[in-house]
Amino acid sequence: MAFQILINLIIATMWMFLSETYTAASFVTGYILGLGLLFLLNRFIPDSFYLKRVYKIFMLIMLFIKELIKSNIDIVKLVYNPKPEFEPGIFALPTELKSNWEITLLANLITLTPGTLSVAVSEDNTHIYIHALDIDDINDEINSIKDTFEKAIMEVTR
Amino acid sequence: MNASEIGEFIAALLILIGSIIAVISAIGIIRFPDVYTRSHAATKSSTLSILLTLFGAFLFFWWGQSIFSVRILLGILFVFLTAPVAGHLISRAAYRRKVKMADTTVEDELYDVLHKKGAEDSKQHSE
To answer: How far apart, in Å, are the Cα atoms of B80 and each of A52, A53, B22?
Structure first.
């Protein structure tokens, strides 16, 4: 991905040199032309077209913001409940993510999602221990949410 | 009502919502029973409240005063990245110091792992 962005920047600079106008507008024109070239010559370059990955990163950020707002609505409900009845607990979530920064990203996402807080990561990086606000009804649901997060992170990284 | 007034109205609304969420987060910190549940209230709500307030300030300066402040955007980014890490670290440190959980706690899978590992370590020391 970094390689393709570099090629695209070089094409944009070449376009500025060719047209001899050194302005931001001509740089943007060259960049768009470079995008078209990279899309056409996609099969000669390792990795797939990089805008796909940029789109997936954007979708991950949108998912993040959506879950953050949902979790805050949950907190409001709990705080203004006259008798908050919940059963907190810690459960282990097995994860397939390998590299350090994928796991960091997943732990951060978990912390900002409704009713969950990552407490520890096991030493062999296979489990994340999560403190849940209400463990009874949420356990299965949480696992499904994690599947969507894990899938989204995997789509970004590989 | 012209365009800049609408912009200022939206900015003021965002700042108002952000401060309401901050109050809710503070009440949550008082009302919840133990460190971990309080940490829930502290990380999520205060993150969102700071984000909304900063974004409101950003929109106000952009539309009202026509100043495009990148510093506020950077502040939003940094808070977004660091707040969950802080929550994670505080709850982890509390767990390692064996801070008691609330009485209603039903399940604790981490206890077994740490406990078992501690037993193995002490066995190695004795050998």
So the answer is: 24, 21, 15
Residue linked to tokens 């998912």: A63
A89 min Cα distance to partner chain B (Å): 5
A87 touches chain B (CB under 8 A): yes
- On whether any CB of chain B is under 8 Å from the CB of A94, the answer is no
Length of chain B: 127
Entry pTM? 0.76
- pLDDT, one tens digit per residue, over A28-74 is 999 999 989 888 888 887 777 788 888 888 888 888 888 888 888 88
Q: What DSSP assignment string belongs to chain A?
A: -HHHHHHHHHHHHHHHHHHT--SHHHHHHHHHHHHHHHHHTGGGSSSS-HHHHHHHHHHHHHHHHHHHHHHHHHHHHHHT-SS-----EEEEEE----SHHHHHHHHHHHHTSTTEEEEEE-TTSSEEEEEESSHHHHHHHHHHHHHHHHHHHHHHH-
